[in-house]
Design a protein that fits this description.
- It is built from 1 helix and 2 strands, in the order ββα.
- β1 and β2 form a beta hairpin.
- The chain has one domain.
- The longest helix has 11 residues.
- Strands 1-2 form a two-stranded antiparallel ribbon.
- It binds zinc ion.
- The site of zinc ion has 7 residues, from loops.
- Zinc ion binds next to loops.
């Protein structure tokens, strides 16, 4: 885990945002991002947030 999952920049120079997920085997790392902008863009591109159980009504 040394680079951003989205833009592949070296995370050392950033205060990285880490995403992990609870699975049957414990916790699995989903991704690491240099900032919330990359996390947000990654969510948009991968549809990772689609079908998430917490619903936001707009
Ligand atoms: Zn990034």
């Amino acid at each position: 885990m040394a680079e951003c999952t989205y833009c592949e920049q070296d995370l050392e120079q950033y205060d990285a945002v880490l995403v992990d997920r609870e699975t049957d085997d414990g916790r699995t790392q989903e991704g690491a991002f240099c900032n919330y902008g990359c996390l947000s863009a990654w969510l948009d591109e991968t549809d990772a947030a689609t079908g998430a159980c917490c619903r936001i009504d707009v």
